[in-house]
Amino acid sequence: VQLQASGGGLVQVGGSLRLSCAASGRTHAMGWFRQAPGKEREFVAAVSWSGASTYYADSVKGRFTISRDDAKNTVYLQMNRLKPEDTAVYYCAAEVSYAGSYSHTSALRYDDWGQGTLVTVSS
Length: 123
What we know:
With 123 residues, the protein is mainly beta. The chain contains no helices and eleven strands. The strands form two sheets. Strands 2, 4, 5, 6, 9, 10 and 11 form a seven-stranded mixed beta sheet that branches.
């Protein structure tokens, strides 16, 4: 599955952005990860295949919301009350082959990755 992420940009502290990730086919779970300069990639949010279950990193809980529209094969990440520490390249990821032995928060669950979209939060 090919993934195309969009929606990144420059925003001020406290602002909002919505990231989108369009998949070329059907997927199981989908997730968002991010990588800040000089840091390892980290989990941000994930949504189950049905959309009924969502998962968040503690650092974004209550500020970010993940959702999916299966009619469009698209997953969204609504990011509110952005902070400078949210600055990173955000990657969407898709579980194409079911990998239920891995947690939704693990990068190992996901087969395919998007190219990344840069989010910069200025203070």
